[in-house]
Design a protein that fits this description.
With 384 residues, the chain is mainly α. It has 15 helices and four strands. It has a two-stranded antiparallel ribbon with strand order 1-2.
Length: 384
């Protein structure tokens, strides 16, 4: 296993460089008019600069360059082209998000950009090769012909999930920080058990994703001084999709370790449970209304929490707490094997609780749709 101290060094570099890059990003974005203007469906009441995505991208690139210069990480960069694949795919999706922030790309054009990023990951080998079947201990080896499709679907799903949840100050960055931290711990534990090769890029990408989110969160927590925009949300989704694929889609069957019967590739459904649930609810809601999936509305989970009387910070902290609970379900069996059998039941209870808490019903609609317009202080920022 690679020395944890070097991972800590890269993590500190990610936090520091992102925070330092955010200061000029605020000034530059304001100067060139790269800003988010308050609208009816948004929560913020003042003009706020974008540019957080650019700061996180800079922090990511510097962190990857730092890791590449550390001898202990040499196997990650010289054994395969996966590290370069993540950098190139991240660059592609960042540019797509940046254009969307500036010009509002059409849904097909944005999806084409996501497919391009997924294709880069595939051709560089940063993808999944197998799929574990939960609760059975069995797994399916993906055929070469289907891997590109699976990679594209995975990238599209996670990038959109992060983009849709990015609607309150600090919400998306906090959720991704918690989820990527859990994913990094999971991957490092697998390496310690000898179930992942030291050349696996997943834990490093997850640690850097956590670091850049925390560095940005200093400026993004309510009241936010800067937003990440689609450039940042899509970029974070790409990092999570890449790291989950190379960790969860590479883990071999583990004799005697029953936890792995729960399918490592299902990790995102735990650590990103809130964004994925929000995405599914948005798809059902917009399909039922006959609108396109890309049609924005104010019925996301975070909007509902605000309309139900939660303050901005309390709503964000509530969703962070749920993410932490779901992430703990991933890590608990690894560190406390005796609780392995409890995880499926706890996951079911948590899932039902989330649906019951956030799913729209007739009673909540009476609260969600007040007869009087919302006060300016309650206008909610939604970058989705």
């Amino acid at each position: 296993m690679l020395p944890l101290g070097w991972y800590a060094v890269v993590f500190v570099v990610a936090v520091t460089t992102t925070a330092l890059a955010t200061w000029p990003a605020i000034s530059l974005a304001t100067a060139i008019g790269y800003v988010d203007v308050p609208k009816d469906r948004k929560v913020h009441a003042r003009v706020t600069p974008y540019g957080g995505g650019a700061a996180m991208f800079v922090g990511f690139c510097i962190s990857m360059a730092t890791a590449a210069a550390i001898p202990a990480f040499r196997p990650l960069f010289h054994a395969s082209s996966e590290a370069l694949g993540v950098v190139f795919a991240g660059t592609a999706i960042f540019v797509v998000g940046l254009i969307d922030d500036l010009r509002d790309m059409s849904a097909p054009a944005k999806m084409a950009g996501q497919v391009l990023a997924a294709s880069i990951l595939y051709f560089c080998g940063a993808t999944m090769y197998q799929f574990h079947i939960p609760l059975t201990g069995q797994f399916v080896v993906l055929s070469p012909s289907i891997i590109p499709l699976v990679t594209a679907v995975w990238v599209i799903a996670l990038t959109n999930a992060v983009n849709l949840i990015d609607g309150l100050d600090g919400l998306a960055s906090g959720i991704v920080a918690i989820g990527s931290a859990a994913l990094a711990l999971y991957g490092l534990k697998l390496e310690g058990l000898g179930l992942l090769p030291l050349s696996n890029i997943g834990p490093l990408v997850a640690i850097i994703a956590c670091g850049i989110c925390l560095g940005f969160l200093v400026f993004n927590f309510h009241p936010a001084k800067i937003f990440m925009g689609d450039a940042g949300a899509l970029f974070l989704g790409l990092l999570l999709s890449a790291s989950t694929m190379v960790i969860g889609g590479r883990t071999p069957p583990a004799s005697g370790i029953t936890y792995f019967f729960f399918a490592p590739l299902f990790l995102p459904f735990f650590i990103l449970g809130i964004p994925i649930l929000d995405m599914v609810m948005a798809f059902i809601r917009r399909t039922a209304k006959g609108t396109g999936f890309s049609t924005a509305d104010k019925d996301h989970i975070h909007h509902r929490l605000l309309r139900l009387g939660h303050g901005h910070r309390r709503a964000v902290l509530t969703l962070w707490a749920w993410t932490a609970v779901l992430s703990s379900l991933v890590l608990t069996p690894l560190f406390i094997p005796s609780l392995t059998t409890v995880v499926p039941f706890a996951a079911i209870v948590a899932g039902i609780g989330l649906v019951l808490l956030f799913w729209p019903d007739q009673r909540s609609r009476a609260v969600d749709e007040p007869s009087e317009p919302l006060a300016p202080a309650l206008v909610v920022h939604d970058e989705s």
